[in-house]
Amino acid sequence: MRILLVADEEAPYLWDYYQPGRLDGIDCILSCGDLKQEYLEFLVTMSNKPLYYIHGNHDKGYVHFPPEGCECVEDRLQEIGGLRVLGLGGCIRYNPGPFQYTDQEMAARVRRVRRKIKKAGGVDIVITHAPPRGLGDAPDNAHRGFAAFLPLMDEFHPRYLIHGHVHQSYGHGHPRTLQYGNTTVMNAVGWHILEIDPSERPPRKSWLWRLARIGR
Fold first, then answer.
1. How confident is the model over 142-157, as pLDDT tens digits?
2. CB 202, CB 20: distance < 8 Å
3. 2-214 architecture in CATH?
4. Full strand arrangement of the beta sheet holding 160-163
5. Fewer CB in 10 Å around end: N or C, the chain?
6. pLDDT class of 213 with cuts at 50, 70, 90
């Protein structure tokens, strides 16, 4: 399965200088936030494939004018082509703006979807706007990650946690992908193609790995 990942920066290659065929071969699109509604609408129209999105902290326009033809997966576990995809948008609260949460508020959101994940037998991909704490985040208040995502990965071992929010141009020197146990943490700022086999399921980490994590 080929998934187009987009976040934060509208890619001229896929919009201003788009040429027919550039979206051929993708099966769906996942947006991790902070993108213009018109951009998402363009992508879903040109690809003729489903687009699923969560909110970034600059997406207040989505409240009254959500991107047409696209589906919001905030706080939902969505089955997409055999993959179980969970959406948890927003960033750490740093001002009174929309789609911002304290770590305690995000932890409460995670608890509310926990039963759905267990009922589904797990989750394959988590899409977020902000990264997990200490995994591709930044030291300033606006770009700190959520500690609440760490126990989610510890318990359910999603194959991927895909986020935006921290631009590569900010100069923090983070690689696009980091590994946390069985989970690959990926920064989707700009655009990226993810190829994934829905039939594969990674092995769970042993209880010894959990003890080592607790002992840090």
1. 899 999 999 999 999 9
2. no
3. 4-Layer Sandwich (3.60)
4. 77-80, 83-88, 125-128, 160-163, 183-187, 177-180
5. C
6. very low
CB 165 within 8 A of CB 8: yes
* Model pLDDT for residues 178-195, shown as the tens digit of each residue: 999 999 999 999 999 999
3-state secondary structure labels for all residues of the chain:
CEEEEEECCCCHHHCCCCCCCCCCCCCEEEECCCCCHHHHHHHHHHHCCCEEECCCCCCHHHCCCCCCCCEECECCEEEECCEEEEEECCEECCCCCCCEECHHHHHHHHHHHHHHHHHHCCCCEEEECCCECCCCCCCCHHHCCECCHHHHHHHHCCCEEEECCCCHHHCCCCCCEEEECCEEEEECCEEEEEECCCCCCCCCCCHHHHHHHHCC
Which residues share a beta bridge with 128? 88
Both tokens of residue 47?
């690809």
pTM to 2 decimal places: 0.90
Are the beta carbons of 191 and 4 closer than 8 angstroms? Answer: yes
- For the cut 80, the answer to whether the pLDDT of residue 169 exceeds it is no
Q: If pLDDT is split at 50, 70 and 90, which confidence band does 168 have? A: confident
Taking alpha carbons only, the member of 155, 198, 199 closest to residue 180 is 155
Q: What span, in angstroms and rounded, lies between the C-alpha atoms of 41 and 80?
A: 19
